[in-house]
UniProtKB/TrEMBL annotation:
PROSITE patterns: HIS_KIN (PS50109). CDD domains: HisKA (cd00082). This is histidine kinase. It holds the Pfam family HisKA. It is found in: Membrane. Keywords: Kinase, Membrane, Phosphoprotein, Transferase, Transmembrane, Transmembrane helix. One of its GO terms (cellular component) is plasma membrane. One of its GO terms (molecular function) is phosphorelay sensor kinase activity. The chain crosses the membrane at residues 7-30, 144-168.
Amino acid sequence: MRLQSKLALFSAVSKVIILLLLVVGLPLLVNKVALLNADERLLQKEEKMYKIIEEQGIESFITEETGDAYGSYNLFREEFISLEEISSGKVVNSIENSLRKVDNEIVNYRVLSSTFDLGGKRYLLEIGRSLATIENNSQTLQTYALYFLAAVVLLTVFTDLAFSKILLRPLTLIVKRLQRIEHPSTFTPKELNTNTTDFLYLNNTINAMMGQIQEAFQKEKEFIGNVSHELLTPVSILQSRLENLLSDPETPDAMLEKLVDNLRTLHRLKSIIQALLLISRIENEQYLRNETLDIPQLTKEVAEEIKERAEAREINLQVEMESEYTLYKANQSLLFTMLFNVVNNAIKYNKPGGTILIKGQSTPEGYELSINDTGVGIAQEQLPHIFNRFKRLHAPDGESHGLGLTIVNTIANFHGIEVAVQSTVGEGTTFNFQFPKGNLPDSMAFSTNWAQSRN
């Protein structure tokens, strides 16, 4: 999962958890707030009542007609005010819940009780508000509070997502720049436009690391050139001296066989050095891919080149090309070597009178070229290692497969070609080369993209 997605997910989950905690505690909190608000209103009404009594006198409420008490309820009995004369020894000053009977109906009120003295008499003032009304207000507050909290959570989640995208934009630029690198030699250090020190440190570290890698590749190229000169030159000199000894009539017959064996060993050593140099040069991007190739035509040229070797082994070589395919940005000599090595192995490890079928056809994935032989086959446990240059494999006849298949795989990877191998011991082997679909030269790709953008 991407870092930006993780940050957004963490932000969303944390806010949802906070929202759930608030939802659990919200009823208690809102009820408490509603009661405090109701108590505040009761205190305000108490103050107004005292002001009215002070201005108009107690007679405006308690008269001879009302007796020693006064009571008033609003239409829906949500609130009431009562005033009555009490004994002088009783003092009350509280706000609490109380049940009152109103018109034969029990109603639960939040009641403020307060005593005061006036004209030598003591009075009890009670102001009440229905708890049902307070609870209704509390539920309304809870509903609006939940809507508000949900809106805040959604807003903050989207805000965090947008902010994390902006914050991580330098990291995205670094990743995209690294993804465009086809080879270390193509990397160009760039400054990062950000004030986040962590990303600046990361970018500078990558630039320094890639500089070290480029330097290492350069040293490797120089080493390859030195190895090519230092190893191949003495081998060629030894080969020439042995050939001169072989052609010398004074060389004893007993030494001729030993000289031939030495020449064979030198030839093998020279082939191994050349193969390793070829693999290294391909991996170091020392070959150009600037040619346009007709793959069916190239395959026919390989078959024509190796036909005499197949005829010498009495092997039937068949070529079936069902469609055309052009590979752009390719290297002809390397691809020729790739196909030649596979067909040569198919001849080398085939049975006398066997068959080799080279078949090319278009597929939904691009173009598939298969080389099938009826040879000795490769054991299943060896198939995963046939392209490993450090794994020495042997055919059933005891001969080594060498570095030929390693060269094949290296050239295929260099051109973006997928290689698959199926083999059965005693029945034969099939190499499948899947060439990429939509392979276009740079100029044609630009024209196509431009046309699509216009449409």
